[in-house]
């Protein structure tokens, strides 16, 4: 079976889809912020000056892409697709339209109960327990995350009084197969959290020679006898989560 190939893909990224009156030739701002939470996505669109410029189209949904203004700076903004296949297509299409730097954030499960709910996690490597990244870069157990901008982000966390944890993440595409055996295995190897997109983001960006920074706010706890949901639901602890969006926006300003 061939997984990784140096050849270009047979199907090329198309960029965005456009509604009547939208500029099909638009070049997006080079820095893009993506968020997985629909609640935070809606809050940002409402809070800031937002111009809808196109949309992602899949078989069963549409997701609008915006240019927003934060402190006078234009930023590409999108609701990130959940899981490796969808986020990889998002990145490819946005790169096609001019994006060169991505900041993507969302919820994750924690493998250490001492990590506080909604605190920040900065992943430094991801265990590649998913399929999509295998098609973008050669096979390996892990892939580096966030080779740039960690120090800039830590400065922002300090300014905004956010605690953070730094460590490995476990990227999986089978949420109902996060078994106790696997949880222990990845925790023993240094993983502090689990999510579904980290290694894919790193692999797609590496192959396309663009930059990325991805971070998480802690959600459900897997370091327990039984699953502890904590604030995994999108509207749970929402006011604290809204403060997390400022961290992404502030980093966008720093890396322009």
**CATH top level assignment:** Alpha Beta
Give the overall form.
globular
The radius of gyration over CA amounts to 18 Å
What is the total tally of β strands?
A: 10
Task: Extract low-pLDDT stretches.
Answer: none
Q: And the CATH topology?
A: Rossmann fold
CATH architecture label name = 3-Layer(aba) Sandwich
CATH superfamily: Nucleoside phosphorylase domain
Strand order, main sheet: write it out: 5-9-8-6-10
Helix content: 25-40%
Describe this structure in words.
By secondary structure, the chain is of the alpha/beta class. It has one domain: Rossmann fold, CATH 3.40.50.1580. Helix content is 28%, strand content 31%. It is built from 6 helices and 10 strands; from the N terminus they run βαβββαβββαβαβαβα. It has helices spanning 38-47, 84-96, 150-159, 180-188, 198-208, 238-255; strands spanning 31-35, 49-58, 61-70, 73-79, 101-110, 120-129, 142-144, 164-172, 191-195, 211-221. It has a 5-stranded mixed barrel with strand order 5-9-8-6-10, surrounded by 4 helices. A hairpin with a 2-residue loop joins strand 2 (49-58) and strand 3 (61-70). Helix 1 packs across helix 6 (238-255), helix 2 packs parallel to helix 5 (198-208) and helix 3 (150-159) crosses helix 6 (238-255). The longest helix is centred in the C-terminal third of the chain and has 18 residues, at 238-255.
């Amino acid at each position: 079976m061939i997984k990784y190939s140096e050849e270009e893909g047979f199907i090329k990224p198309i960029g965005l889809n456009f509604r009547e009156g939208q500029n099909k030739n638009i070049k997006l701002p080079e820095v893009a912020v993506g968020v997985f939470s629909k609640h935070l996505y809606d809050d940002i669109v409402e809070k800031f000056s937002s111009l809808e410029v196109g949309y992602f189209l899949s078989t069963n949904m549409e997701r609008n892409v915006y240019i927003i203004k934060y402190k006078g700076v234009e930023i590409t903004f999108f609701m990130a697709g959940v899981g490796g296949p969808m986020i990889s297509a998002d990145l490819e299409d946005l790169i096609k339209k001019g994006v060169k730097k991505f900041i993507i954030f969302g919820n994750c499960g924690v493998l250490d109960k001492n990590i506080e709910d909604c605190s920040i996690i900065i992943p430094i490597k991801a265990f590649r327990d998913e399929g999509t990244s295998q098609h973008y870069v050669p096979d390996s157990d892990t892939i580096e995350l966030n080779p740039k901008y960690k120090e800039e982000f830590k400065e922002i966390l300090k300014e905004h009084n956010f605690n953070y944890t730094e460590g490995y993440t476990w990227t999986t595409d089978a949420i109902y197969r996060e078994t106790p055996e696997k949880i222990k295995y990845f925790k023993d190897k240094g993983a502090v959290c689990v999510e579904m997109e980290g290694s894919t983001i790193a692999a797609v960006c590496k192959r396309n020679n663009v930059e990325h920074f991805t971070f998480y706010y802690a959600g459900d706890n897997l370091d327990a006898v039984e699953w502890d949901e904590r604030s995994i639901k999108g509207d749970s602890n929402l006011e604290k989560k809204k403060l997390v969006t400022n961290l992404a926006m502030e980093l966008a300003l720093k890396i322009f």
